[in-house]
């Protein structure tokens, strides 16, 4: 991406400056998977299924001159 903004890399960059691993936790059926899907793939699905166990998705962004890979882990919520 040109300029100093934020952008997606369509192809895997050769050099990644930072890798961040983030866990998303919370109650069951509050939208954790939807937030992850919107961030990683820019998708939103109204009829998604509950997460079983743990899943993760990645997104690589460029901020100014730094390439950052975000690995976001989605956990299953627990009902009480």
Automatic annotation (TrEMBL):
GO terms for molecular function: GTP binding; GTPase activity. It comes from the Eukaryota. Gene3D superfamilies: P-loop containing nucleotide triphosphate hydrolases. Pfam families: Ras. NCBIfam families: small_GTP. Belongs to the small GTPase superfamily. Rab family. PANTHER family: DRAB11-RELATED. This is Uncharacterized protein. It comes from Gossypium armourianum.
């Amino acid at each position: 991406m040109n300029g100093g903004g934020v952008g997606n890399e369509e192809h895997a960059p050769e050099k990644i400056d930072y890798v961040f691993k983030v866990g998303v936790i919370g109650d069951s059926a509050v939208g954790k998977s939807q937030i992850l899907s919107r961030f990683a793939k820019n998708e939103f699905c109204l009829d998604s299924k509950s997460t079983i166990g743990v899943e993760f998705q990645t997104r690589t962004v460029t901020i100014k001159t730094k390439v950052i890979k975000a690995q976001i882990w989605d956990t299953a919520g627990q009902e009480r």
